[in-house]
Recover the amino acids of this structure.
């Protein structure tokens, strides 16, 4: 006895009405791309309102593990396929049930699409239930709240049996909610922000401001490694590396210290908007969270945001740091984010940044200095690095749930 396929349930995606076909196609695409990196024989099939991964001999739990990383899936189950024969169905149900060694209660739900099958659904439930009780220890039936619901579908071609529900990653397939330019620093927050947007179906490109020689190559590599971790959910990410040294030095020399942080952030947003617009990307995403540091007060966000009318998405704005850290551990970015290499902000950060900057003051200080040359050069000299997902980005201990 072996598992033939994995049944995929879409959950939230199913409510999408007319767009559903598009969502399904994206999901199927992602599954095919993800699985083909590792497994030669799996096939992803769509049949009316369901999707299957046919295993064709590949290791069921390894394939399941990969499928659990794809956004847009609510839950998954292994399916056994057998001929429409009472004994084979009983054995298959017992086999499927045993996949969950912790289950203490179960119920059997049968459906007979093929009405010519001689055993009625109710009768089949009893027979299969009896077989499981007779062949297990300490297991009971619970029709209201079972640990495992064993589902039997007698169809025209064969009988299909599923048991344990495995949780999917949820959300929407990446790419179904447009694109955003993720402002990716080397810290803990921005990779988590990127992950949450991807989970919502957003395809990302990333932008990083780099200030050599004040920031080292290792700081840049750290950001590329973080992008590598994120690429797991979308196969590839373009990272735009912006040379930021000249602008930062000019800010440092010409802007009063209390406003250098605010002006630096405004410059980052201006450059990000220009690069997003060139790439037809309609928003930016940051890892800002209210109240964490001086640049992240309400006043500061207001003063920074003045320079763009593109939406700036801040998925962490209302989250606690500990919850953010939890996610960064789950997506395996935490250990990279906490490496000590200096970020451009850490180096030029003033001793006493204004926690309540205003738009008026920021504009006034900027109007005394001509930054246009440095801004143009930063955009022109931006380098694009494409990060493709590779299996060695993943740690063995990763587990989304
Ligand atoms: P993070 O953990 O993401 O670094 P943080 O709490 O350290 O966040 P800040 O350093 O104040 O916060 O940065 C706020 C946000 O600004 C970051 O989440 C990121 O989106 C963006 N940002 C900061 N520095 C850079 C950089 N060098 N390149 C690109 N984006 C940056
Ligand atoms: Mg930071």
């Amino acid at each position: 006895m072996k598992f033939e396929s994995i049944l995929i349930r879409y959950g939230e995606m199913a409510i999408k009405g007319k767009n559903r076909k598009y969502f399904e196609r994206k999901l199927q695409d992602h599954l095919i791309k993800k699985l083909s990196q590792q497994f030669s024989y799996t096939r992803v099939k769509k049949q009316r309102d369901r999707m299957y991964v046919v295993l064709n001999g590949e290791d069921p739990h390894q394939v399941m593990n990969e499928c659990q990383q794809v956004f847009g899936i609510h839950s998954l189950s292994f399916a056994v396929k057998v001929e429409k024969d009472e004994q084979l169905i009983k054995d298959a149900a017992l086999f499927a049930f045993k996949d969950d060694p912790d289950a203490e209660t179960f119920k059997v739900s049968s459906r007979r699409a093929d009405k010519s099958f001689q055993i009625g659904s109710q009768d089949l439930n009893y027979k299969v239930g009896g077989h499981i009780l007779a062949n297990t220890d300490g297991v009971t039936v619970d029709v209201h709240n079972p640990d495992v619901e064993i589902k039997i579908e007698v169809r025209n071609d064969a009988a299909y049996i599923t048991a344990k529900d495995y949780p999917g990653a949820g959300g929407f397939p990446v790419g179904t909610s447009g694109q955003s330019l993720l402002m990716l620093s080397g810290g803990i927050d921005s990779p988590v922000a990127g992950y949450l947007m991807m989970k919502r179906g957003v395809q990302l490109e990333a932008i990083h401001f780099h200030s050599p020689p004040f920031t080292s190559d290792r700081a840049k590599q750290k950001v590329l490694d973080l992008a590598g971790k994120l690429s797991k959910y979308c196969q590839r990410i373009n990272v735009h590396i912006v040379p930021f040294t000249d602008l930062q030095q000019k800010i440092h020399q010409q802007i009063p210290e209390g406003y250098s942080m605010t002006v630096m952030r405004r410059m980052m947003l201006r450059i990000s908007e220009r690069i997003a617009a060139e790439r037809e990307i309609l928003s930016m995403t940051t890892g800002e969270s209210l109240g964490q540091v001086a640049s992240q007060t309400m006043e500061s966000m207001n003063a920074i945001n003045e320079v763009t009318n593109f939406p700036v998405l801040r998925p962490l704005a209302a989250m606690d740091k500990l919850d953010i850290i939890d996610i960064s551990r789950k997506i395996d970015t935490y250990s990279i984010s906490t490496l000590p290499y200096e970020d451009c902000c850490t180096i030029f950060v003033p001793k006493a940044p204004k926690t309540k900057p205003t738009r008026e003051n920021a504009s006034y200080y900027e109007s005394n200095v001509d930054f246009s040359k440095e801004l143009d050069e930063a955009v022109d000299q931006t380098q694009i690095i494409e990060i493709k997902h590779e299996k060695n980005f993943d740690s063995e201990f990763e587990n989304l749930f």
Notes: The first strand starts at residue 5 and ends at 9. The longest helix spans residues 257-278. The CA atoms of residues 112 and 120 lie 7 Å apart.
